[in-house]
Amino acid sequence: MHNPEVLQWHTWTALAPGPALVVMGAVHGNEVCGAHAIARAFDDLLHGRLVLARGRLTLVPVANPLAFRRNTREGERNLNRRFVPRSDPRDYEDRVTRQLAPVLAAHDALLDLHSFHTPGDPFAMVGPRDNSGPREPFARAREEMALARALGAPRVVEGWLEVYDRAARARGEPPDEEGIGTNEYMRSQGGYAVTLECGQHADPEAIEVAERALHGALAALGLAHVEAPAPFTGPSTRLRDVVLRESPGDRLARDWHSFDAVEAGDVIGVRADGRPVAAPRAGCVLFPYPEAEVGREWFYLATEEPQAQAG
Where are the CATH 3.40.630.10 domain residues in the chain? Predict the structure, then answer.
């Protein structure tokens, strides 16, 4: 049983220089596939079945021990919506962030392993393209996309923070620290980061997806000589819209799964008063969450991105 007052991470450093990778699991406590996959990698490293050839590797199996112990998404709040270190921590996740933020900042790349609520295919998520804007300036998009494509997932999704900021504005909140998760923090420190959504929470295959992705990251960065999954070579998918749940009576029109295709005008949900919520354009549904809290993200809409960043 994980002690909520103790964080654990393990670091291996090869004598040959190379990039530094940190892999995290259970940022959300009910998303356990990453924790299991990291435990396997730890055992492989411990017994010599996996050998670090160069660089540095840090494994953080359980980033949120309180939520993990409770098997809930959050401890006191969502760790992955305000991962900003404070000198005066105000809640449990603030205390966790203060300890983990320096760990992330000491690495070049982050692989953050997650899972999702409804059935669907795994996918990797990347951040912005290179830009010098005020919200999330970035200069390592090519490296980030190359890492995302190396993980073995059949899709890569772009545009998270831009669309999340729209959700914050829809709630009447300023898009400041809200929306800054592990990946965004990593980029703010000069690194790059990929989130891998490995499948549905309870699907045992999600652990295998996470393990293959970890091997794919090690191979892509040249950290270890391991069998890597086939890289993804197709176009990326770009988040375009987010729809909030406005009432407990709001319901989805069907049992949507991530990447289910929609045409413009297709009804995705129905408000409590009977108003339909329709897709404004052709694309697909992402992150449908029938039990979303009022004022939180109900579902996202995305489109295929024809000019995907090359890896």
Answer: 10-220
pTM over 0.85: yes
pLDDT of residue 256: 94
CATH code reported for the domain at 236-305: 2.40.50.100
In words, the CATH class of domain 10-220 is alpha beta
What is the pLDDT at residue 31? 97
Instruction: Provide the pLDDT for residue 57.
Output: 98
Q: What are phi and psi of 141, to 5 degrees?
A: -65, -35
What is the pLDDT at residue 117?
85
How many whole angstroms separate alpha carbon 103 and alpha carbon 186? 10
Quick one: pLDDT at residue 310? 42
- Minimal CA–CA distance to 27: which of 76, 84, 74? 74
Residue 254 makes CB contacts below 8 A (sequence gap 6+) with none
**DSSP-derived 3-state class of residue 72:** coil
Counting as low any pLDDT under 50, the low residues of the chain are 308-311
Q: Where in the chain is the domain with CATH 2.40.50.100?
A: 236-305
Residue 124 CB burial class (10 angstroms; 0-12, 13-18, ≥19): buried
